[in-house]
Amino acid sequence: MRVWNISLQNIKAKPLYTFLSILILTLSIALLLGIKQLETSFKYQMEANVRDIDLVVGAKGSPLQLVLASVLHIDNPTGNIIYNDAKKIAKSPFVKTAVPISYGDNYKGYRIVGTTDEFMTLYNAELEEGRKVKKSMEVVLGSNVAKQLGLKVGSVFLSSHGLVENEIHVHTDELTVVGILKPTQKVIDRLIVTNLKSVWDVHHHEDGHEHEENHVEHHEDEHEHNENLEGHQNDSHEHEENHVEHHEDSHEHGESHIEHQENYEEGKEITSLLITFRSPTAFLTFPRSINENTNMQAALPKVELDKLYAYTGVGFKTISGIAYIILVISCIIIFISLYKMVKERAFDLALLRTYGASNVQLIKMVTYEGVLIGLFALFLGFLMSKVAVYFMFRILEDDIKYNLLQVLSFHDFLQIVMLVLIMILVSVMLAIYPIIKMNISTILSNEK
């Protein structure tokens, strides 16, 4: 107990050295913990969200943009592709599952994705309450969407066109919430999921409204023609033949209208197709075949995200390197502080030896001082990293409507703590060397 008290008094006796040692050591620990947590969070998001997606097929453009837009939903899509063309790809023997997605609207910044039931399977998403989408204009909310917007099963809202919140182009078709998903810590948490028909209906109703007006106008003209026809029932036979001919034309018009409807449905578009392969051999030929033989592009999400991680990894490694350099500097300062104390108080330490203190007790005194500084800096560094990472992800969350923060694993945390403690112990061992080699009689005689 007395040794601890002496160590504390030594720390108080040199506040500037102590403050400097704690400050620099805290900064290095905060950087190491913070950058590790950032790296862990980004890596988890990349791996978790592409785990069951082997290939993304979409419009020609940047492959990385296609993956970021279709898998992580943090970029704009490269364009749309014809749904029937995508269905032909989905029928390939290489394909195990093919999930179409279509989007272009949002509600308060949260994307509305039209897809099939298999979409939730890709992310292992389960319903927390309500049911799945069964018909057009029904939606299921990701857990983050429901929490942030306060929506419940039965809530009704209007979507707006585009991927950014706006009040300029608001659709008139109401969407009804029929289910809410459990948290998955994946991208689906910040999505509003519906079926493809909802997305098509919302966008085609406006076009359809114009079409309907033209159709009504056509019927009014036809009705007027029929009235005129009744007023001339007693006209010549030639007129009746013309009337029959007119009906035949109307019948042909009806057939062409049905054909037009079929063609219209065939022309439906989607944003992209998320594919899972049956066998790894598909990676060798299938993407190349799509890129060379169709007007679509195929992107491998794992490859594209690995490239992105390689670019961002340079930043992580650079900051980590700076943190390690600061850690070494802080340990050198601790060593200088302890060594200086041992050298300047050599006479006091020699006196303690003459009054019965052992070498072990003197070494404990120096060691406790170094360990106390290290533990205090660890505590402050842990707090600083938590606060810094929390605010960093809050800013990022405002942009992408999603909290990417992942808890740092105990293994990673323990690795950094052990590294810091080992560095401090090395500093202490170097500082206590003069105590081990202490010649009490020489020190006392020189002081006199």
Output the keywords.
single chain, 448 residues, 6-stranded mixed β-barrel, two-stranded antiparallel ribbon, 15% strand
Give a concise summary.
The chain has 448 residues and is of the alpha+beta class. The chain has helices at residues 2-13, 15-50, 63-72, 83-90, 118-122, 143-149, 196-231, 237-266, 282-293, 301-344, 346-354, 359-400, 410-431, 433-436, 440-447, and strands at 55-59, 81-82, 95-107, 110-115, 127-130, 138-141, 156-161, 170-181, 192-195, 269-270, 272-277, 296-299.
What topology does this entry show?
Blueprint: H1 2-13, H2 15-50, E1 55-59, H3 63-72, E2 81-82, H4 83-90, E3 95-107, E4 110-115, H5 118-122, E5 127-130, E6 138-141, H6 143-149, E7 156-161, E8 170-181, E9 192-195, H7 196-231, H8 237-266, E10 269-270, E11 272-277, H9 282-293, E12 296-299, H10 301-344, H11 346-354, H12 359-400, H13 410-431, H14 433-436, H15 440-447
Parallel strand pairs: 4-9, 6-8
Antiparallel strand pairs: 1-11, 1-12, 2-10, 3-4, 3-7, 3-11, 5-8, 6-9, 7-8
Helix pairs in contact: 1-12, 2-10, 2-12, 2-13, 3-10, 10-12, 10-13, 11-15, 12-13
Structure description:
The chain has about 450 residues and is α+β, with helices and mostly antiparallel strands. Helix content is about 65%, strand content about 15%. The chain has 15 helices and twelve strands. It has a six-stranded mixed barrel. A two-stranded antiparallel ribbon has the order 2-10. Helix 2 runs antiparallel to helix 10, helix 10 (about 300-345) packs antiparallel against helix 12 (about 360-400) and helix 11 packs across helix 15. The longest helix has about 45 residues, at about 300-345. The chain is elongated, with a radius of gyration of 36 Å. The relative contact order is 0.17. Mean pLDDT is about 80; it is low at about 210-220 and about 230-235.
